Structures are given as structure tokens and as C-alpha cells.
Known about the structure:
The complex is a heterodimer of chains A (291) and B (443). Chain A has 291 residues and is an alpha+beta fold. Chain A folds into two domains: 36-91, 3-methyladenine DNA Glycosylase II, Chain A, domain 3, CATH 1.10.15; 101-279, 2-Layer Sandwich (Alpha-Beta Plaits). Chain A has eleven helices and eight strands. In chain A, strand 2 and strand 3 (166-169) form a beta hairpin. In chain A, helix 2 (36-44) crosses helix 3 and helix 2 packs antiparallel against helix 4 (80-91). Chain B has 443 residues and is of the alpha/beta class. Chain B folds into three domains: 1-22 and 105-360, Rossmann fold (3-Layer(aba) Sandwich); 23-99, CATH 2.40.50; 372-442, no CATH class. Chain B has helices at residues 122-131, 144-148, 172-179, 181-195, 209-219, 239-247, 267-278, 309-315, 356-359, 372-376, 383-391, 395-400, 411-415, 422-442, and strands spanning 22-24, 30-34, 44-45, 52-53, 58-61, 70-71, 76-85, 91-99, 158-163, 200-205, 225-230, 262-266, 285-291, 299-304, 323-328, 335-336, 350-355. In chain B, the strands form four sheets. Chain B has a six-stranded mixed sheet with strand order 1-14-13-17-15-16. In chain B, helix 3 (172-179) packs parallel to helix 5 (209-219) and helix 11 (383-391) crosses helix 14. The A-B interface holds A 117-118, 121-123, 125, 127-128, 131-134, 138, 140, 213 and B 83, 85, 88-91, 335, 338-339, 360-361, 364, 421, 424-425, 427-428, 431.
Amino acid sequence: MGHTIIITVITLGLLALFAAVILYFIAQKFKVFEDPRIDEVLAVLPAANCGGCGFAGCRNFAEAIVKAEIFEGLNCPVGGAPIMEEAAKIMGKVAPVVDPLVAVLLCNGTPEHRPHTSVYDGVPDCRIAHNLYIGETDCSYGCLGKSDCVRACPFGAMYMNTGTGLPVILDDKCVACGNCVKACPRNLIELRKKAKKDRKIYVACSNCDKGGPARRACKVACIACSKCEKACKFDAITIVNNLAYIDATKCTFCRKCVTECPTNSILEINFPPRKPAVETEVEVVKVNPDV
Amino acid sequence: MKTFPVGGVHPPENKITAGTAIKHLPLPASVAIPVSQHIGEPAVVEVNKGDTVKTGQVIARSKGFVSTNIHSSVSGKVSKIDTILDSTGFRQTAVFIDTEGDEWLETIDRTDSIPAGIKFSSEEIIKKCLESGIVGLGGATFPSHVKLTVPAGKRCDTLIINGAECEPYLTSDHRLMLEKAREILIGTSILMKALKVNKALIGIENNKPDAISQLSGLAKEFQGITVHSLKVKYPQGAEKQLIKALINREVPSGRLPLDVNAVVHNVGTAFAVYEAVQKNKPLFERVVTITGRSVLNPGNYFVRTGTPVRSLIEAAGGLPEDTGKVISGGPMMGKAIPNIDVPVVKGTSGIVLIPRNESERTVIRPCIRCAKCVAACALNLEPYLLMALSEKNEFERAERERITDCMECGSCSYTCPAGRPLLDYIRLGKATVIKMARKRMSN
Lengths: 291, 443
């Protein structure tokens, strides 16, 4: 009995040794050299695999960083400047400064602004609703409210506000990976330059119809009256396709356009309340960023 | 009994209005006529606000080859040119006309005579179809003059007239075959002349024995036209399925009936062609079935294009209280309309009012891989796979799986025991793939 065990152990042990020797030589022969810096860079990346950098995942991005001559065009929106600096240090290079961005929703069509004209009871998927018909309201450009963007967000930075039927973006969690931008079939989400104290001024409308039809569909639609364009002293506002656009890189947050807009389609967010004299004229949109 | 070999379902027929004669719907106070009632380029508006138009006058002219003319369906004053939400669910440009009587163009023959002699050549007939705005009235609204123009290198030897009317509830074609049999047969002869063929087959599902006997009795007077009864199976009225059933030819994937030397037209189109060629009457009215289980007076009506669905519902006894959805077209392929002010267009074959308890969507449960959808598909597709691919944005693969072959008959969704929205996703995938292909073409 004991004899059999010894023979078995020795036989298997020899076989294992033999296989190990063969495997060792094969491993040496077919060894693939991999830059060790790829793993080093990968270690500093956030490992969210969100695709915000434009690559399939963090590892592909790390490979791209190691291969790149210069860092131009390479940016991890999740980690931002600190992480890019660390990655650059490993490579002995300097990371260019990239402005952090944040997602904003270019629609403010709440039920009171944009009454529902039909009921959609199909698949709760914006792509299908968009492909099928104009939507539950009379605006063929506005938010469909079926949460495609919320489902696409890998950072839990969005949720659906059931009262307004619109998605809410949490500025402190949003890393501008751009997944929601891709998910929205109506292209309603824009990545804008982040400003101090998360302040934002933007045209919360995407309706490209002329003034009349746009206004009929939604009370807070941009009617392309060009009042804001004239009021802006910094050439930050342009009107293209019956729609005003505020260039975040030129905007100085003077808030002139907000007071000028006759339909309240320009939102000012995270600003202190205006002086009483002005406040009687303008309705200040209050947004609580900590919800 | 003839039918197509693969797939198909048997939805309850519910042909409530089969015995109701076609009546004329009273003229509405105003009409809104969309300029795009066909597949292809929208027509270009030719009238201005304030213009007075007569019934049958061209108000929008075709632009490009795949496009057709749009005519006024009433006489009166153009009140505005604006957009309207139409039965596609999107806003389209439309000409709004306030009705002031019903004065027809003098060129239209309004007598009761049924002239049988065809005095036009093939080219003249095709030109007349374009001028009269004839489109396929089976529902797809493809401009008929395009279908009648056989391109160089192609040959056509058989004309098929589609009288299957396989959609549940709808009876507009059925009634037309009973009441306008002679006109349909003359229309068929005109189409045969236009296509230069000497053989035409009329296919009718055998749940309409009266129409079959009526047409086959009269068809003896016409050369080359034969009437065939078909087994009742949805989607028997689909072009490719009808060709397979009647002449046993299979249209290859991604090809047209003309590739197997056949052309299919609907009985409604044959009637419209008859009116256009023999009576000089453009297409501005069609038979519409207004039906539903709770409708007080369901019926079949000759309705002018641009008439709001509301007046049709009023003629049928008003909107039943339990209405859940108003479907334009049949319950299988039709589309729920967002409101009842949507105008009737050339492609509106019926308005079906579905009660709330029947129109509700079922809960979406996981796919159990039973392959019932695969068995139901008449085109040998795999609907469960196409849905999954569309859901996951895998459109390149969906294209390889022939998603564009899908004719959106809805048999897969109808048969799915898990209540999965197969067709919803396939439609999305198909639209995206077509967009992708167009982009490739333009690059």
C-alpha cells in the first residue's frame, strides 16, 4: 500500500518536473516584451473603464500614453489634471492643461413649460421613442425622458427627476466621460467648460424650429430673437439654426443675456441671488446641486 | 390552397365591417393635406395662402423621380400652409384648405359610365399615374409610376394584384372588390398595358368568398386576368409572400419583385389607376374602414384626403369611452396616432379604435429561447437576435443578419410568449442600418 503511494508521487513528480522544464523554455522562446511602464501608468488611472478618453478602456489608454510622443489630445476626464500629471511623471513628460468639463442638459421642457400631448406606453427607451414619433410633447427636439442617459452614466452622476421628467446631472460626480452625450438620440447633452463654484450660463433649449412653432411647443423655448446676441459684449453668443449658443470659453458670466431673454430659455445656475431691484424683473432659476 | 411556405401567424380576423357598404363621408369644414403622403421626396407646394382651389387641382408638385403630385380634395380657400402632426407621428408641411362647396375640375368625368376601352399607350398611362398622384394604396404608398417604369435590363412578365387584405379588422379592399369589381378589372388591364405584360393574377384570401366569386365571374370578360384564392394567413398580403404563393418565385434578400419579373399592385391602386386613366380623376379620396369592437356604427367610407380622423370617428358614432389607442392602418402594422386631428392620407387604409384593456402593453419578460419568433417570421430572420443586437447597438452585425429585409409585419411580437418588444427594437435597428448605409453611399 505505502509502496504504491511512493511510486505514484515519484512518477507524477518527475512528469511535473519534465513539463515545467519544457514550459520554461517555451515561455522564454515566445516571451512578449511589454513595456513595464504600461502597468505603472495603468496603476495611476482611475480604472473606471468609462471610455471618456476615447479609448476602449483604461489599459488601452495606458498603452496609448506610453506610445505617445507628446501628450496632446490625451486626457483622462475622470482623473483630470492630477492623474495626467502623475502619468506624465512616469513617462518623464509634461501633461498639457485641459479644462475640466461638465455635462449640461440643453432642454428645460418640464410638464408646465411643455404640456404633454400624447402618452407613450412603448418600450422605455429614448432611441425607440425618437425613432417612432415626435414624442409625448409637441417638441421634436426636446427631452423624451426615458432615461437612456441615466442608464449610460457609469458614475451615478445622473438621476431622473420624476417631477420635471428631465434628467438631473450632479456636478460633483460628473466627470464628463461623454457616455450620456452618446446615449442621447436627440443630442441634448453638451460637455461645457467647468467654471468656478460650478457656475453655468447656457441656453437650455435645442429647438431648431422658428420662433412661432418653437414657442407653441414649449414656453421656455429659444425663439432665436437674437436679443441675447445683441446684449452680449463679449461675442460669446451666436445664433445658428434658429438657436442661440453661448460659448463657455468666451462667457464672462455677466448675466446680461439672462435678463434679456424673453422666454427664460437661458439658465443661470449656482449664482447668488440678484439684487432685489433686478429680481422683480427676472425669475432666477434655483437649482440645488446637492440633491 | 395557395400560401407562402415559411412563417406566418393567425390573428383573430375581426372583420366587423365586411358586410357594410361603402358610404361617402360628408365633406369636412376644413382639410389639412400633407405634401408628403408617399415614400420619397415630399412634393413642393404650388399654391399660396388665400388662393382658391378646386377639387382635384394640383396643390403640390412632385420633386424628383420617387415623388408624386398632391391634389386638393375639396374646393375652397387655402387658409394657411403650416406643419401638422400626421399619421407618421412627425410634423410635416401641409396645405390647409377651408371647404367652400365641392366644385370639381371640369376635366374630371363624374358620370356613372364605366368606359372599358383603353386609348392610351404605356408611356401615357405612366405619365397619367404621376400626374394623378397615384401611390400604392396597400399602405406602403410607394409612387406607382416608379413601379410601372421597368428599368432597362429588367423584364416583367407577370402582374399580381393584391386583394389578400390579411390585416385583421380592415375591409376597405374587400368592399371595393365587391362594389367596384369591374373598375378594378379595367384598372388591372390598364396596369397590364403599362407594364406590357399579358398575364395578371389577382390573389384574394379565402375568407372573402363573395369577392372571389364576384371577381372571377367578371374576370372571364377580360383577357389574361385570373383570380386565385389564398389561404388565410398573416402576412399573406406582403409583396414577397404573395409572389411566392401565386407564382412560386422567391424574391432574393435585398432585391425587388422586378428581379423575379413580377410587379405587385394593390386592388385599391388598380381602382385608383382606373379612375385616373379612364375618368381623369386624381387620387384625392380613398376607402377607409373605421372599426373597432366598441364602435357604435363601424363602416367603410370614401374619405377625402386631409379629412381629420375626428370627422371619421364622429360619423361612426363618436369615440367610445374605453378607447385606449387609435390606430391608423391595421392592428398588426398600423401606428397609434398621437391625436385624432391627424389627417387621413393616401396610405390610410383604416382607423381601428382599440379598447384600453386590449391596447395595453404586457410586461417585458426575459427571452426563453423558445424560437417562436423565428418560426413566425415569413422572411427567415431571427427576430430575437435582431432585437438583442439593436438593443446593444451592434448595428454592423445586425446588417449582416439581414435586418433590412424585415418588412415590419409584427408576427414576431405578436407570437412572443414573453411579451418582448421585438419589432420595436428591430425597427430601431433597421432605421439605424439604413442611415448607416446611406452615409456609406454618400462617402
